[in-house]
């Protein structure tokens, strides 16, 4: 085997696997850690707010307020009702969705811009 062939193979492998010293933006579980609610960064909503999904298309659920943390296959659509429990200053809401057909619920984070407040949730 020629030295040139070996060097070419090493360069190709480095490009495929990532060159040494290159910054890797891999998502780790710590990147998708849900923040503590009730802090100044993520204040709780009291009482929780009833919302309806606006806009068009699916509204993706995330495990944390981070676009790199989607919950695969979990989304709501326009006119679905959500309950918001907390909001961040950078446009995320901690919500719960209760499927009226199955009774199953899911909690996560969505972009607040797609929500319209319809009232509060609490005893009447």
TrEMBL record:
Residues 1-26 form the signal peptide. Keywords: Signal. This is SH3b domain-containing protein.
């Amino acid at each position: 085997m020629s030295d040139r062939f070996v060097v070419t193979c090493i360069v190709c492998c480095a490009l495929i696997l990532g060159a040494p010293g290159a910054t890797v933006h891999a998502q780790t579980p710590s990147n998708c850690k849900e923040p503590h609610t009730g802090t100044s960064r993520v204040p709780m909503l009291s009482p929780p707010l009833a919302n309806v999904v606006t806009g068009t298309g699916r509204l993706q659920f995330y495990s944390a307020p981070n676009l790199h943390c989607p919950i695969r296959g979990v989304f709501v659509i326009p006119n679905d009702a959500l309950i918001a429990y907390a909001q961040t200053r950078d446009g995320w809401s901690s919500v719960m969705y209760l499927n009226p057909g199955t009774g199953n619920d899911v909690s996560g984070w969505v972009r607040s811009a797609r929500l319209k407040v319809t009232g509060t949730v609490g005893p009447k």
